[in-house]
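Question (not urgent): is this output format expected?
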Amino acid sequence: MSHLSRRAALRLTAGLAIGGALAGCGRSGDTAAASGSAQKVDASPATGTVNVWAAQGDADVLGKVVEPFKKANPGLVVKTTLIPNGEYYTKLQAAIASGRGPDIAQFFPESQAQFLDSSTLRAVPDGLVDPGSFFSSLWDAGVVGDVAYTVPWYAYTYALVYRSDLAKKAGAQAPKKWEEMTPFLKALQGAGAAHGLGADIGWDIFNGQDVAMYAWQAGGSLLSSGNSGSDGAKWTLDSPQLVDALKYNASFFTEGTADPSGPTFLDAQPYFVSGKTAAMITGPWVIGQLDAVAKQKGWTASHVGTAPLPAGAGGSVSFSAGGSWGVLAGSGNADASWKLVRYLATAGTQVAQYKAYGSLPAVISAWDDSAIKGQPLLDAFFTQLKNTRAFPQVGTWQQVATRLGKEMEAVAKGKETAEKAAANIQAYAESVGTGTT
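Got this back:
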């Protein structure tokens, strides 16, 4: 089980100094019914002690956000432990293995699959929350075999962020289809950018997530069952759609719109502001950070545009990510723990979390709050969140995604064909399996 890297810390803690207008899509009938237990959690006061572990970042203000809940439940003591992002999963895994884990732990929908089983987490009690109140793919990310193990807390996804001033100068519109992407990026270069796209060159698990996203856009899937590792699901990574995804990503480099030597993830925003690059495929947190990078208030409003991701044959699809909560199987106070999770999953609490830190709510109705509504640069993320998928809920996904990133590099640098890379990925995935029996 890998720990979160420095890049993961930045991606998984969407500290946004912004407002946003997002709305969500409804649940499908099948997944909306997914639950895990006949146990009910009543409305009586929570009592005793609840230990909460969370990653530093968006959880830094958690004490302030849960204060009303503590006042309404005077017999409850909430002890919160914040752990550096880069150490979080490692420490949590060790604590669980030793039987000294917390009652409640924070998880990340894009990388929580290895925890989703009854030996680690308790099933979400029937009726605790309404699954349809969340963005559907975020709820789906916590469901395995029709059992829900986590409850969403905040949300983010990827969209296209570009230099609107350069696009205006070039007379170019944001691309809506794959085939429009390279002409758009070249137009930005013609308007003054050194490279059109600041493509991430970490060639690691995050690039693997990107190529998975492109495979969805091409109309493909990663597992024979969609994203669940149950019922004998098999990896489907040597597909024509994954080949198309690898070729699509490589085209940015072969067409000269992206530089294989940079930027790194941490350099992406300075490159973008300086004009070394003119577009990023990234999350919503950058919107609130670019003024500071530019050292100019209002720079973002006059220089930046956003758009949903260009669509391949399978449409404009991105991945769902964010934060979630789970109650550990070894919790000594599950009743109070679930009552706290229920409180954290209400629209009002998630609006309070947004006001305190800027984390985008996972509860759809929270986006109607006046504190969040009406930020035009988040419209694209609103649109994209309605068309997202969860990464495979299997224990080996992070290993497979890391291999995807490395094969992606070989294709982008012309060292391997996309077909060979897809075959290599499939063989590797089959060798590690899905981590399920």
